[in-house]
Each structure stands twice: as C-alpha cells, then as structure tokens.
Design brief:
alpha/beta, 278 residues
Length: 278
C-alpha cells in the first residue's frame, strides 16, 4: 500500500472505533498515564514551550502538557478522535490546546515551529515512519526535544495477545507484517532509537516503562476488546454467531490465567525514546 492509502485506511479505522475510545477514555487514560508522564519527563517541559502532540487520539498527553506549558497543538488523522480531544479540553477548562486533523506526512506548520514534539503510541501507525519523522524534525526548533513511545515485545504485553493471537490462531490468519502499521511494529528494543538516529537526532536514549492493566473480570476484558481493539473486533464481525462465541470463550479462558484477587491483571511494557534536534 502507498502512504496515502495507509493514511486513509487509518483514518477510517480510527473514526470507526472512536465511539469505543470515548466510552473507555477514562479507563485507558488512567492505564496510560505513566507513559504520558514519562514522555513529558524526558523532554523536560518548560513553561514557555510550544508542543506538538502527534497522533493525539483523545488528547493525551497533550492535554496534560498544556497545563504546564504555553501552547499545545494535538493532531490526528481521525476527525472522531479530534472531536473527543476537543471535548476533553473543554471539560477540563484547557484553552491553550487545539486539536487539528492532519497526518505526520502532511503537517501544515512552518519549520522550527515547536520546541517539543510528543507521540504516545502513534509511530507504529505512521504511513512512512522515516519520512514522517523527518517531517516532524522539520517543524522542531534547533535544540528542540522529541519523545515517542511504542509497545514492547508481545510477550511483555499479554493484554494484547490474549485476544489478538487467539483470533489469529483459531481463524488461521497470517501474522501481520512488521513493515505495516501495527501494535508491535517497534517492539524490539533499539528500534525507536534507530529511527531517531536515521533522522539526525542527537543525545538519543531509550528506556522501558512497565505497569499493570487491571480488568474487573474476563468479561470486562472482552468488552474492552470488542469496543477498542480494532483488528479483533473487525475479524469477529465477519463470523457467524457460533464461531464468534467459540472465540469469545477461548479468550475468556486465557484471560483467567491472569486472575489475581478477583481481577484480571495483565502486565504491560513500553519503550520511550528521546532525542534532541541539532
């Protein structure tokens, strides 16, 4: 697929599932808060910073960053996600955050506009990661700071694989290509750092952030999966009721392996990469 087709596909996908993300926003933002905090920590936000939050989704970490700095523009390919981000900004009384529909491939900003660029779990879905990152560096001031996060290896993130791999195995689906947009595109340690190096960034470092994702029950996890995890939900919609129920029961059974104190507790792990513009 060419980059334009990938962007359009991503736009349609995220728009389709934006209602699910809105439904689960508080739950997901609490889960991902440590990663957003680490992104903001490594770029060392200053009150006079102006930041770009690329692939902002429902608004984080850009909304929290906006409470600490001069201005934040949050961009996303999905109109649905940007609407949610704007609603969240209004609800929280944040007036120096602006949501804008655009992709990393076609940023409508002049060179050296921002002192900070943040991207939490967006790089895995870039249409052309190397070119898109160079475009982000273009709008970053000299000496500006940039931080990305991406999920670590699948073995460290069973919250994704319990449903995803179960569907893949039971339906005999091929494994997703590592060159195409997907959750584990930058799962290998050093892959984000390598991407940063290719773009000419300096003082690069990459660290691991870990935590736990807690669901009330296997059924709670299944509900989240069907509302938010697009590849699984789309695959299941194409099936008959009997096959769908078979897969659901298989997922519920595997989720129970992570039961502890009456809850389903999944470990998670992510990489956070930092770099500075020359």
């Amino acid at each position: 697929m060419n980059p334009k087709d990938i962007i359009q596909q991503q736009r349609e996908l995220w728009n389709m599932f934006s209602p699910g993300w809105k439904k689960w926003d508080r739950f997901v933002m609490a889960w991902l808060q440590p990663i957003g905090e680490k992104l903001m920590e490594v770029v060392n936000l200053n009150s006079d910073d102006e930041a770009l939050d690329i692939a902002t989704g429902t608004g984080e970490p850009g909304l929290t960053a906006a409470t600490k700095i001069k201005r934040v523009i949050g961009t996303d390919v999905s109109e649905g996600m940007i609407r949610i981000a704007q609603e969240n900004a209004k609800t929280r009384g944040i007036t120096n955050y602006k949501g804008q529909v655009t992709s990393a491939s076609s940023l409508p900003f002049q060179e050296s506009t921002f002192s900070v660029v943040l991207c939490r779990f967006g790089v895995m879905y870039f249409a052309n990661p190397e070119e898109d990152l160079r475009n982000l560096v273009r709008v970053l001031k000299s000496g500006g700071r940039i931080a990305f996060s991406a999920w670590a290896e699948s073995e460290k993130n069973p919250w994704a694989t319990v449903s995803g791999k179960t569907v893949q195995e039971l339906l005999n689906l091929p494994a997703p290509s590592s060159n195409m947009p997907g959750i584990f595109r930058y799962a290998k340690y050093g892959s984000l750092s390598s991407l940063f190096q290719q773009s000419g960034l300096k003082n690069i470092k990459e660290i691991e952030v870990k935590g736990e994702l807690v669901f009330d029950s296997p059924e709670h996890y299944w509900e989240y999966t069907m509302d938010v995890i697009a590849p699984v939900a789309i695959a299941l919609k194409k099936l008959d009721d009997s096959t769908r129920e078979q897969i659901k029961q298989a997922v519920l059974k595997k989720a129970k392996d992570f039961e502890n104190s009456g809850h389903i507790i999944f470990p998670w792990s992510a990489w956070v990469a930092f770099g500075e513009n020359k």
